[in-house]
Amino acid sequence: MEEAVVEEQTAQEKMIRGSAWMTAGSIFSRVLGAIYIIPWMAWMGGQAELANGLFAKGYNPYSLFLVIATAGVPSAIAKQISYYNALDEYQTGRKLFKKGMILMVITGIICFLAMYLLAPIMGVGNPDEIKVIRSLSWALLIIPGMSLIRGYFQGYQEMAPSAISQLIEQFARIIFMLAATFLIMKVWHGEMVDAVTASTFAAFIGAIFSLAALGYYWLRQKDRMDVLAAGSLNQIEISTNQILVEMVKESIPFVVIGSGITFFQLIDQYTFEKIVLATSKITSDEAKTLFALFAFNANKLIMITISIAVAMAVTSIPLITEAFTKNLGKEVRKQISTNIQLFSFIMFPAAIGMAIVAEPLYTLFYKHSDLGTTILQLSSCMSIILGLFTVLSALLQSLNQNRYAIFCLIVGIGVKGAVQYPLVSMFQAQGALYATIFGFTVSCAMMLVSLQKLTHFHVKFVLKRLLLIVIMTVIMALVTIVVREACYLFISPMDRGLALVVMLLSAGVGGFAYMYLTLKTRLADRLLGDKVAGLRRRLKIK
């Protein structure tokens, strides 16, 4: 019994430590990816909104090709290596990695050629969109193999290499992007399209630096992994064909589920402007600007919070798979329950807090806009359901419920498609977000019901924890609103510098209030571990 308790604690510590690394890496990466917008848009001048829309139209098909190119193999590798490592079959995991790398190189080349050659179709004949899409295609030659190495590390519960390489990738990408944009727009007085094209090509530059960072970690970890491989039981005989079949079988669901949010975004990309132009009197440029407001501007900011869910999902897959493989039903239930609670513990205050400070936040990154603020508020709330979808789909896949996870996504896409036209025609930009919320809500509801039936995790216990989190989030929200309104008595939110002051004060006080409540109620201890007690002592909270 004592050994089981220790094993449960170790698994939870692994999940928390892994989540911390992946969350930190994802958040800092997303924050960097949002901060660059301030100078980037300033250098674009009056064409900033159109540049944002063009950027988004390139990245949406690129995101889909990227998922296809990696074929879900990195996540599948993490899951499969974790599975074989649990059986002390380290050599089998190595075979999977080697065959997976061959597969990644081939799919990377194929997807690069497909995206480059099909750019005229994806860009609907628009020469500007074609240039941007083709500039992004080059990254497909590197990212699949790079992602596979990240998956290999994650299979060993080593999350630091992935997180740090992600940061390095973002640093390199942003430095190249800003330097190229400044030279084109300010020094050479070039065209906006050329600046956007150079900015999207930065994905290729970032991938090169990330691959170099992973190579460094590979050399550092090689001796330890060689020792583990030397102690492999080698009782499982599996042929090359079996490895490839197993890889593809495991990968296909990751491709489909991993493309979930992208599918919804593509529906918006290819239908939104047409619906708006057909049902209103706005111009084509105004429709493109509306699209940029929610598809790029707001989306760029909410991805900071959604990255939390992505990080947790990536961390949970190998750990829950390992417990499921060993038939540790109690541990599986506990980890699923903890995962949902951790998600809510972080996501609720982050999303609601962003919605409350949406006005100064939007002003800081873009410019003051009542419509932009409204869309960011709605998008912030939507990020909760998008993040939940990411976590729940990962949990289902960890339990080998791949087909049902895909079915839930298809139903959600169907709902989105069914309500898209009426909602967009009535509410325009907000309507597209409402349609996305409806679609993902249906998917998440189906997934939650399935998880409960499969694992019988304690719903009442989770609901009690969620109620406590909601209460603390509401208190935090009230505190944040009071501070924000107090700031508005003396500070105008329409100025970018002053908006930063309002945002920092409001978010800072609200965040401290939430932290105080979680420490006071000991909820942070239960979800994050005993180390949190040290923080409480330093803050003198009893």
TrEMBL record:
<feature type="transmembrane region" description="Helical">
    <location>
        <begin position="20"/>
        <end position="42"/>
    </location>
</feature>
<dbReference type="GO" id="GO:0005886">
    <property type="term" value="C:plasma membrane"/>
</dbReference>
<keyword id="KW-1003">Cell membrane</keyword>
<feature type="transmembrane region" description="Helical">
    <location>
        <begin position="135"/>
        <end position="153"/>
    </location>
</feature>
<feature type="transmembrane region" description="Helical">
    <location>
        <begin position="433"/>
        <end position="454"/>
    </location>
</feature>
<dbReference type="Pfam" id="PF01943">
    <property type="entry name" value="Polysacc_synt"/>
</dbReference>
<feature type="transmembrane region" description="Helical">
    <location>
        <begin position="403"/>
        <end position="421"/>
    </location>
</feature>
<feature type="transmembrane region" description="Helical">
    <location>
        <begin position="497"/>
        <end position="517"/>
    </location>
</feature>
<keyword id="KW-0812">Transmembrane</keyword>
<feature type="transmembrane region" description="Helical">
    <location>
        <begin position="466"/>
        <end position="491"/>
    </location>
</feature>
<feature type="transmembrane region" description="Helical">
    <location>
        <begin position="342"/>
        <end position="362"/>
    </location>
</feature>
<feature type="transmembrane region" description="Helical">
    <location>
        <begin position="174"/>
        <end position="190"/>
    </location>
</feature>
<feature type="transmembrane region" description="Helical">
    <location>
        <begin position="196"/>
        <end position="219"/>
    </location>
</feature>
<feature type="transmembrane region" description="Helical">
    <location>
        <begin position="374"/>
        <end position="396"/>
    </location>
</feature>
<feature type="transmembrane region" description="Helical">
    <location>
        <begin position="62"/>
        <end position="81"/>
    </location>
</feature>
<keyword id="KW-1133">Transmembrane helix</keyword>
<feature type="transmembrane region" description="Helical">
    <location>
        <begin position="102"/>
        <end position="123"/>
    </location>
</feature>
<keyword id="KW-0472">Membrane</keyword>
<feature type="transmembrane region" description="Helical">
    <location>
        <begin position="251"/>
        <end position="267"/>
    </location>
</feature>
<dbReference type="InterPro" id="IPR050833">
    <property type="entry name" value="Poly_Biosynth_Transport"/>
</dbReference>
<dbReference type="InterPro" id="IPR024923">
    <property type="entry name" value="PG_synth_SpoVB"/>
</dbReference>
<protein>
    <submittedName>
        <fullName>Polysaccharide biosynthesis protein</fullName>
    </submittedName>
</protein>
<dbReference type="InterPro" id="IPR002797">
    <property type="entry name" value="Polysacc_synth"/>
</dbReference>
<feature type="transmembrane region" description="Helical">
    <location>
        <begin position="301"/>
        <end position="321"/>
    </location>
</feature>
